[in-house]
Amino acid sequence: MGASYIALAGNLGPLKRITGLIEILDFDLAVRGDGPVNHDGCIQAEVYRAPEVVLDKGYSYSADIWSLGVMLWDFLEGRTLFQDVDPLHVEEYYDEQHLALITALLGPPPKDLLDKGKRTSMFYKSDGTLQNPSLIPEDFTFQNTICNMSGEWKRRFINFVQRMIK
Fold it and tell me: Mind listing the pLDDT tens digit for each residue in 149-163?
């Protein structure tokens, strides 16, 4: 998929509704890419926080790719993918709810992530299931959360974002 693919796509037309302005900021926790493979500590705004950060496994650039994937969804829909993790009400943010929503979208986390996460036992049982499965919404899927696209473009967008937040 290079420039020729993009050129063939042509004009995709207007979105069904205007979703707002894009703003990139908050570089205070930036680290060099040529340093250690994994970093420790809490980074990222709660709503964009990758599972490896929540579970304190250590993170690398993949946590940034995760955030970008979630942001792309947010830009398309004009609201946060993880609605119960509202960035305007961080005092109400719960890691447990965030991980439940992630699990609803992607299924249980990989065993490697669970084994290496320092906080895994707070949220997951030894068999990889959530401690509190009642937090998983029934209909929380990519297909059900995207309203501003349909058909083939929706399928392609979901496929693209799923690769970013796997």
Answer: 999 999 999 999 989
Say which residues have a Cβ less than 8 Å from residue 43's Cβ, sequence separation at least 6: 29, 49, 53, 59, 63
For residues 97 and 84, the answer to whether their CB atoms sit within 8 Å is yes
**How many Cα neighbours within 13 Å face the side chain of 96?**
12
Which spans in the chain are helix H? 3-9, 51-54, 61-77, 95-106, 111-116, 120-123, 142-145, 151-164
- Domain residues for 119? 38-164
Residue 43 sits in a domain whose CATH number is: 1.10.510.10
Q: Do residues 100 and 130 touch, judged by C-beta distance below 8 A?
A: yes
Task: Using only the alpha carbons of the chain, give its radius of gyration.
Answer: 17
pTM: 0.74
Q: Which amino acid is at 53?
A: V
